[in-house]
Amino acid sequence: MIRIAVLPGDGIGPEVIDASLPILQAAAKRARLDLGFETALVGGAAYDATGHPLPAATLKLCDASAAIFFGAVGGPQYDKIPDPNLRPERGALLPLRKRYELYANLRPAKIFPGLEGQSHLKPEYLKGLDLLVIRELTGGAYFGKKELKKDSAYDVISYTRKEIERTLHFAFKAALGRRKHLTLVHKANVLLSSVLWKQVAGQVKKKYPQVAMDECYVDAFTMFLIRRPASFDVVVTENMMGDIITDEAAEVTGSIGLLPSASLGVKKTKSGIFGLYEPCHGSAPDIAGKGLANPLATILSAAMLLRYSLSAERAARSVEAAVAKALADGLRTRDLAGPKGRAVSTSQMGEAVLQRLLKAKA
Fold first, then answer.
1. What is the pLDDT of residues 210-222, one digit of tens each?
2. Where are the domains of the chain?
């Protein structure tokens, strides 16, 4: 049995996880994979129960698992915790990324047929949009030296050559399996850390002559992502820039409820690469418990879990095809249907995807 650690978390996290697990289980069964799901507390729910957002029992489960299937953490009530290191995002997500060296964060963004009208961009700009952002996840300002005083504060952007090299190698290899085009996003005209990224990229590029590489300042890239999003294939960048531009990519596609993610690291398992899989959206406490959340980002994250941690490519594609079929058949959650459109609930969307997966040819 392959153990999967399930960490639903806060807000809509439990809802989107509940809608996704039957699909992950069904796809794995088709691939003749025996999965065992074990649930543990994380985030605000863990803090309420134990006084810490990442309890020892949760870490013990994750250590013994092949992958982590993650919902979402946080909520306005936890912003009042006096110690910022015990707030859900900083006290749970960042330590998990650091503990398992989950340095490569993969965030694909594409337009599903039938959803061209969801984006604020004209349909002609969206034709062919299918990009993959690879964000370095364990360095930069989020993990650099930091200090908060009464009248001043600082967060240091710090990178080593090793951290940059391994992320770039991952990105170039990803580009080899796609359209062989890599864009490095940086701010080398201002930041010395970006100068190092640019230098290392030029050196690593020599090992991948089949891949065309260009580069772009991050401020210009945010404009180009709106003006010509389909011109990009694989995009690689540092931590904070990646955090921002992937949310912009979500808006380009029409809803952040459609964007999955995989955070992969150095740890190998018997079945693949150890990783943490989660939707790009947050805990959305304003709609929690109402059945309004879109589970598709989490379901697509399950597909990425199958692909990278279980080496089950065919099963991963079957999940993605089932999502595409449900959308093509007109099913929409509230974020996609709009306030006046006919919407299905979180659980109904999950069930619709599951049924299309089961009916598809194995």
1. 999 999 999 999 9
2. 1-102+259-362, 120-253
CATH superfamily of the domain spanning 1-102+259-362: Isopropylmalate Dehydrogenase (3.40.718.10)
Is 187 among the catalytic positions? yes
Check: CB of residue 306 under 8 Å from CB of residue 27. yes
Task: Name the DSSP letter for residue 295.
Answer: -
- Three-state SS at 254: coil
Name which of 5, 4, 12 is nearest 71 in CA terms. 12
Return d(Cα 122, Cα 227) in angstroms, integer. 10
Where helices occur in the chain by DSSP H, the ranges are 13-30, 44-50, 56-63, 88, 94-99, 123-126, 161-176, 192-205, 218-227, 239-253, 296-308, 313-328, 334-337, 346-359
In the annotation, is 142 catalytic?
A: yes
Place of tokens 């989107």: 16
- Catalytic entry in 48, 79, 219, 286: 219
The DSSP result for 168-229, as a single string, is HHHHHHHHHTTTSEEEEEE-TTT-HHHHHHHHHHHHHHTT-TTSEEEEEEHHHHHHHHHH-G
Q: How far apart are the first and last CA of the chain?
A: 22
Contact status, residue 308 vs residue 262, Cβ threshold 8 Å? yes
User: Residues 159, 187, 208, 308: which is the catalytic one?
Assistant: 187
Tens of pLDDT along 117-159? 788 788 888 888 999 999 999 999 998 999 999 999 999 999 9
pTM more than 0.85: yes
Annotated active-site residue 219? The verdict is yes
Strands 104-110 and 260-268: antiparallel
- Region 268-277: what's the mean pLDDT? 94
Single out the catalytic residue among 78, 103, 110, 243. 243
In this structure, the dihedral spanned by the alpha carbons of residues 33, 36, 42 and 44, taken in order and rounded to 10 degrees, is: 100
Residue labelled with tokens 């697990």? 21
Q: Which fold has domain 120-253?
A: Isopropylmalate Dehydrogenase (3.40.718)
